[in-house]
Amino acid sequence: MAESSLRSTVSSADIDAAARVLANFAVRTPLLSSPALDERAGTRIFLKPEMLQRTGSFKFRGAFNKMSSIPAAARGGGVVAFSSGNHAQGVAAAARILHMPATIVMPADAPLTKRERTKAYGARVVLYDRVSEDREAIARDIADKQGATLVPPYDDPMVIAGQGTVGREIAEDMAALGLTPDIVIAPVSGGGLIAGVATAIKARYPQAMVISAEPQGFDDHARSLRSGKREPHRAEGRTICDALMASIPGEITFAINSRLLTQGVTASDAEVTVAVGFAFRELKLVVEPGGSVGLAALLAGHIDARDKNVVIVLSGGNVDADLFAKLIR
Amino acid sequence: MAESSLRSTVSSADIDAAARVLANFAVRTPLLSSPALDERAGTRIFLKPEMLQRTGSFKFRGAFNKMSSIPAAARGGGVVAFSSGNHAQGVAAAARILHMPATIVMPADAPLTKRERTKAYGARVVLYDRVSEDREAIARDIADKQGATLVPPYDDPMVIAGQGTVGREIAEDMAALGLTPDIVIAPVSGGGLIAGVATAIKARYPQAMVISAEPQGFDDHARSLRSGKREPHRAEGRTICDALMASIPGEITFAINSRLLTQGVTASDAEVTVAVGFAFRELKLVVEPGGSVGLAALLAGHIDARDKNVVIVLSGGNVDADLFAKLIR
Question: Which of the 8 DSSP states describes residue B117?
Fold first, then answer.
């Protein structure tokens, strides 16, 4: 990780630069509000609906920003990435726009919709066993043999800066409404999204509290924020939040998050199911389980939001129709 | 219909006035775009997602604008409305905000979610048989006995002006993007939404083509626009577009629509199913069958949209979970 030792943090200016790179390629997602949600929560809630982003999650932002920085001479070797699904689609879609070949290493148990969509963008998909194989080793091997550039899912300054455009847009839209965000909540897995969001939000609103949300059990960020050092979660088995199963915070991301985040909260699979159903019935948005974990924590009462302006990032909407049908019933 | 004979048309200024009335109560819905949709359609498409409106459809706009005009002395008698579901919720939600009692006459076969949601807003629901009973007569009887004001679903200038704020926002947002809408498509049942939308759009963009979309068979607008006079559709039975089953264009609405609309198109239930599934998978929006009929007609190739800037109104998202699960599989 030569790059990360050279540049191990991300500035507000890096996010401004990412916004310029993304301007003609990423969707400028709106900031939504819902009277039904405000009433349910008893305060003013704003939603950043990243399921409306190109590829159905925020991941396109970081992937495209990173891949746009690959020198022309290195583009012919293409890119390789490991991902449970949303980063896979982000990289595959960015590769198609940038005319680069892409190979994606995905767990064999990733949701079908994520595998199919990744292939539909023209990427080659290599499956691995989540329990017995090391996805990073497989990806690095492909990178070495093909001369491909590895696009990390989160622990990279250019990826973090790209995800930070989510926070930059939130700050812009809240300012346009004449409002100050008191609390900003985002799902975390490796922590790239929230590191970028926190950097952008705190630059403009230093008093804002930025809170990470994780599936119950998969609470490596909540633990690490409490102890002040990177700690793995203790979960065995699975969660319905397939996008949020990273085992430990990233190095670069945690260096940012330990400085900027207020706390970490969690939500159970049952609480996530309630949130997905609420989004279907009241918000009319398709949110995948992992994308709803911040909303789930809020609806379950795990965040004291009284009299606060709260912004919740809904980070993606790539969910299989069968699972979605089950969750909304 | 004393009022309609006094004022049987709607001006752009009426829509401006409605926008002021609605400012603190309706959701200012965004104009969305989707790279996946642009690619599929081969042109630039913009979506006006009225499922994100308060109550899950555009109907709140017209109901609230109309009910805000009821004199204080008449408010105690409350309101009565007949509706298959979305107007019901719009009226019920507006009544709660305005502290007026509301009675809604709904068909016994209306989707469960629409009945339940109407009750949840505090309205009294009276069911009738769609085949054997006359909903207008039932509603007028309640109005007479209780001194309630009837809130018509579409054939009323204040209702049309409220729905017209959808078109006003489209015009504003397209102007902010520096773009001209070439085609604007909206679902029609009684024609109130599109009459308001067309009034607002044509005031700013006289060259824009405004096109109505209906379920196949329930094509009273397409027929009437061709012949130049109000004609009923010939359909027997049902369509999955439960919101779009009015039998003939409204008088006031058709006086506007026959002047401003370019043509009417239709989409089959199978084409609507494709559109609902596309919205789930690619747009991550929950759209009800009737709300997607314009998108369905476009995706099915019934509208020549090449090299055009096309705006499609997705008019609502109130769909039962069971039906939605069936449609997306």
Answer: H
